[in-house]
């Protein structure tokens, strides 16, 4: 198999992302993002062009360029991406900004990610929660708002939000979330929500707490589904 000449390919993509044709720019931005995700180191040569493309008239080009910069962890553009999260007119671009800030674990983005938790566009709320979880303990300022989301009744149609919130509270690691998570565990209506709460409680309390007890009960009763067993084994390794 002939190896791709990525240096030349990236040079071509840099020219394409500047093209007058919008579809050509979209394709170039998408390819640069996906190539960055694959760890193609030559994509770093496109950083200046991607920074310019953040401000493209087309929302797809903007979003893909921002996502690529996030994967590449170009920290100098964090302030600009925070501004996009706050002010861009397109919700999908704001989603991309939230994701990129999480990829870079941008602590300075926490206040604006907290604001995004109130977004009427649900996907933006979901991604903001996930990014806060990736930022981890440095996102502790988000805990009060996340606890509000955790307490929102499941029947209003935000089960996914509750699950993501439970996960984020575990990753952030603030002990003030322990009791609210225990309350949520007792009333959780789905296995996925129960598992996520128990997992987060185990992160917060350690191997002897309520969360680990519940996870072991699930395991012993053959209640694990999908990737539960793998996640459980990784959790045991993390706690030992």
How would you characterize this protein structure?
- The chain has 240 residues and is mostly helical.
- The chain has two domains: 1-104, Leucine-rich Repeat Variant (Alpha Horseshoe), CATH 1.25.10.10; 137-240, no CATH class.
- It has helices at 6-16, 22-37, 47-53, 59-71, 78-87, 91-103, 110-116, 122-135, 143-150, 159-172, 178-187, 191-205, 210-220, 228-239.
- The protein starts with 5 loop residues before the first helix and ends with a helix.
How many strands appear in the DSSP assignment?
A: 0
Low-confidence stretches: none
Reading the helices and strands in chain order gives HHHHHHHHHHHHHH
Major beta sheet, specifics? none
The secondary-structure class comes to mainly alpha
Q: In percent, how helical is the residue content?
A: 55-70%
Query: What sort of overall outline do the alpha carbons produce when their principal axes are compared?
Result: elongated
What is the overall number of helices? 14
Mean pLDDT: 94
Supply Rg: 20 Å
CATH-derived architecture of the largest domain: Alpha Horseshoe
Fold blueprint:
Layout: H1 6-16, H2 22-37, H3 47-53, H4 59-71, H5 78-87, H6 91-103, H7 110-116, H8 122-135, H9 143-150, H10 159-172, H11 178-187, H12 191-205, H13 210-220, H14 228-239
Helix pairs in contact: 1-2, 2-4, 3-4, 4-6, 5-6, 6-8, 7-8, 8-10, 9-10, 10-12, 11-12, 12-13, 12-14
